[in-house]
Automatic annotation (TrEMBL):
InterPro entries: AAA+_ATPase, ABC_transporter-like_ATP-bd, ABC_transporter-like_CS, P-loop_NTPase. Keywords: ATP-binding, Nucleotide-binding, Transport. The keyword ATP-binding applies. Belongs to the ABC transporter superfamily. One of its GO terms (molecular function) is ATP hydrolysis activity. Residues 6-234 form the ABC transporter domain. It holds the Pfam family ABC_tran. This is ATP-binding cassette domain-containing protein. The keyword Cell inner membrane does not apply.
Length: 303
């Protein structure tokens, strides 16, 4: 297998011939990544996940998983892939363990994995409880336990934290990080809320109106974030500093009695501060107002 666990080439799909949900998507998900696939409601995330799992019939372009075309290798590929698409379908009147037993029977899997996945998802103590007594977070974890039964190399999860309370979100996040670090599982997950995934993902793809408008590492998105930041400075005489600096730094301004300058690079900030100090001004505060990722996401996905 090459570098990519998931690769699409010019993937184009529409539910009807006239309207494409997306057009020529080139997704690249590398081995052992946690790839957050983001986009506003209706952007096409679930549709793309269904295509990756071979659940929608017609598309143009290519879908490759584990370096092989999905069409010709679907069974082999899916045997190495665990998935959770929206809510897990569970037998609510049975226990958690029975749900896992049934899945093993249906999919022809060894039952000796059951204790392992219960333990991984923190459900060992609740295994003999009926699922209708589970919280939403526990049901989601059971859905994940089912997805983990075949010891997948790749997990594809559609909105795995949707509807969970903050504690449930933390639980799922920790579990996914553990799976990734401990077993090297590649995780591809979608969400319409960047803030939920920010602390989890190593790579990000942002879908807007059928177009992949950003794809790269979380660090690359951070760099974009930094370039949209403002440096705010407070001194004993902000007006005096403005006069001193505006010749060399025309972008500097005075806003609410603070000096504001668009973030350029570290050296520029160092030079600015040095000039002020050498001119006899006292610096009280230098801080960078980072736009958080949520803001950048909103900017990227709005018109
Ligand atoms: N079965 C279907 N038949 C026709 N159109 C559909 C079908 N499923 C989804 N769509 C349309 O395709 C587009 C993409 O929907 P999709 O559910 O993939 O988006 P999404 O990004 O997952 O949204 P959400 O975050 O709300 O789940 C939407 O315009 C939706 O109305």
């Amino acid at each position: 297998m090459g570098k990519w666990v998931i690769e699409t080439n010019n993937l184009t799909f529409g539910y009807s011939k006239r309207t494409a949900v997306f057009d020529k998507i080139n997704l690249r998900v590398e081995t052992a990544a946690i790839y957050g696939f983001m986009g506003p409601n209706g952007a096409g995330k679930t549709t793309l996940i269904r295509l990756l799992l071979g659940l929608l019939p017609h598309h143009t372009g290519e879908i490759m998983l584990f370096g092989k075309p999905l069409k010709a290798n679907r069974l082999e590929i899916l045997s190495k892939t665990g998935c959770l698409v929206e809510q897990p379908s569970l037998y609510e009147n049975l226990t958690g363990r029975d749900n896992l037993n049934i899945t093993c029977m249906i999919r022809g899997l060894q039952k000796d994995s059951i204790d392992r996945v219960l333990q991984m998802t923190g459900l060992t103590d609740a295994a003999s409880k009926r699922v209708d007594a589970y919280s939403l977070g526990m049901k989601q974890r059971l859905g994940l336990a089912i997805a983990l039964l075949p010891q997948p190399e790749l997990l594809i999860l559609d909105e795995p934290v949707n509807g969970l309370d903050p504690l449930g979100i933390v639980e799922i996040r920790e579990l996914l990080i553990h799976l990734n670090r401990e077993y090297g599982t590649t995780i591809f997950l979608s969400s319409h809320l960047l803030s939920e995934l920010e602390k989890l993902v190593t790579h990000i793809g942002i879908l807007r109106k059928g177009e992949l408008i950003f794809q790269g590492s979380a660090a690359e998105l951070d760099a974009i974030q930094q370039h949209q930041s403002t440096v705010m400075i407070d001194t004993d005489n902000n007006h005096g500093c403005l006069q001193l600096l505006k010749q060399d730094y025309p972008a500097i301004s005075l806003v609410a009695d603070r000096l504001h300058i668009p973030y350029g690079d570290k050296e520029t900030i160092g030079d600015l501060c040095q000039k002020m100090v050498l001119a006899g001004f006292r610096l009280y505060e230098v801080k960078t107002d980072h736009h958080d990722l949520e803001n950048i996401f909103m900017k990227l996905t709005s018109n």
